[in-house]
Amino acid sequence: MSSYTLPEIWETPEQMGGAWGGLNQATAGSRFEQDLPVGENDFQVYSFPTPNGIKVTIMMEELRELGLDITYDLYQIKIGEGDQFGSDFVAINPNSKIPALIDQTGEDKVRVFESPSILLYLADKYGKLIPTDFAKRTEVLNWLFWQTGAAPLLGGGFGHFFHYAPEKIEYAINRFTMEAKRQLDLLDKELANKRFITGDDYTIADIAIWSWYGRLAQDKIWDKAGIFLNVQEYQNLQRWTKEIANRPAVKRGLEVDYQAI
């Protein structure tokens, strides 16, 4: 086992290694000048089809399925090539993460960044996919914020060390695999007596959670991660995953075309 001695003060290494190592920096802000295209439709969406990115396209298509006349331009931010660090994108999301959105429907344009914020913004704007009852709305927010807090342990923890890290570290894989399976077990238990994550109604909480955990249950995020995690043992989660995957709006949200920037 290789050993590592902690320095008194950490300094950025010359090379991180791994699939994303070349993009990582310890500072925020734009790295180059950029002109993002801006279309004429109601919403301008700058994204990439990751678990966080597909939340927005699914939400847009669900709103359209409900009969709302919503239009959007969808532009691809190639995160593997660093598009998210361009000046125009950083002006929309200072955190340099997809997805990001501009609402052009009002007198003043509104920027919205971070996927759960976008889901909540659209749900509140149109009064759809979130209950008006205060207690039921709170339960949806409970699960929306659960996903926001849990997913970094799944993606940045399990996914990183299982799939992206330049070396397999047994302790890290065991640590985050245990947490990933705990989260899957939690969802499986919650869905034992509920059709959707908060009850009988499909909400933005289901969209947020399905985009990560439903796709994982389908083994469609990291190569063979579903086999490694034995996702088939979570039968309630599998039932919920399949029902949502068969929704017409979800299918469209996964198949929508991205425009080049």
TrEMBL record:
Q: Tell me yes or no: is Zinc among this UniProt entry's keywords.
A: no
| UniProt keyword Oxidoreductase present | yes
Per the database record, which ranges form the GST N-terminal domain?
40-130
- Positions of the GST C-terminal domain: 133-261
- Per its UniProt record, what CDD domains does this chain match? GST_C_YghU_like, GST_N_Ure2p_like
NCBIfam families annotated for this entry? PRK11752.1
Q: What is this protein called?
A: GST-like protein
Please name the source species: Streptococcus saliviloxodontae
